[in-house]
Amino acid sequence: MYSHQSLILILLAIALTVIGPSLSVQGAIANPTNGQNGKDGNKEGCKTPFNVCLVRGGQGEVTINANQGNSFNGNGGNGGTAVCGGSEVICTARGGDGGSRNSVNFDTSHNDNGGDGGSSTGCLGACAANGGDGGSNNSFNSGNSNNGNGGMAAAFIA
Amino acid sequence: MKSCFAFGGIGDSNNHDNENGNNGNGGNGGTVEVAGSANGGNGGNNNGELFGQTMNRGCGNGGNGGKVTDGVANGGNGGDGNAGHKLFLGNNDCMF
């Protein structure tokens, strides 16, 4: 009797070993969860001992595959806002860079694009609001896709 | 003297075989309301059809220059190798 139960357990284990990976792949394809995108930067009125104010969006994640629906994968965060008090010599708000290798996404997908530059205001010297760089190696995405594009520079206002 | 800059991001390379894809284009320059420059980013390289299966909407284009009150606004440069980047016959790569 025990030998029959053991045999059944062994067969079940073999079946799960063979079928399990294919089930997990199917689950990944059907999963509508989007890839991790970088977070926006946001730091207002920043001051440092060196009179430098840097605000930067986060970098997008690498290798998010097989999303369905309208998905945003590995895109850099936007630069956010750098509001300086007038004493900072350098003040920048830069969008985060896109990640890389986000591929095989279905439907409309936006992959590894650089974040837009933020807003830089009120600084004393050199100021910049730059877009982040796009990522590379985004391939075989079906539907409409935007891949590896640089972010747009945002406004600098005196 | 205050001088400000707004650069569009750089498009990256090797984004290929994406259906209706906008691939590796530089970002546009922003707006600079004081002295400085607003420059478009450069396009990436080798964003075409590696296997010639799909049609791209655009790839490897430089970004447009932005708006600047006192200074220069330059467009970005296009990337290299974005039109002939395929191994097999297929659809034309990029619509510029």
Write down the secondary-structure element order of chain A. HEEEEEEEEEE
**For the report, how would you describe the main beta sheet of chain B?**
3 strands, parallel
What order do the strands of the largest sheet of chain A run in, or round the barrel if closed? 1-4-7-10
Reported for the largest beta sheet of chain A, the result is:
4 strands, parallel
Helix content of chain B: under 10%
Average pLDDT of chain A works out at 67
Q: Quick one: how many beta strands of chain B?
A: 5
Write down the overall mean pLDDT of chain B. 68
Distance between the termini of chain A: 85 Å
Please report which band the strand proportion of chain B falls in: under 5%, 5-15%, 15-25%, 25-35%, 35-45% or over 45%.
25-35%
Strand order, largest beta sheet of chain B? 1-3-5
- Tally of strands of chain A: 10
Taking pLDDT < 50 over at least 5 consecutive residues as the criterion, the unreliable ranges of chain A are: 7-33
The helix/strand order of chain B is EEEEE
Shape field of chain A = elongated
Shape label of chain B: elongated
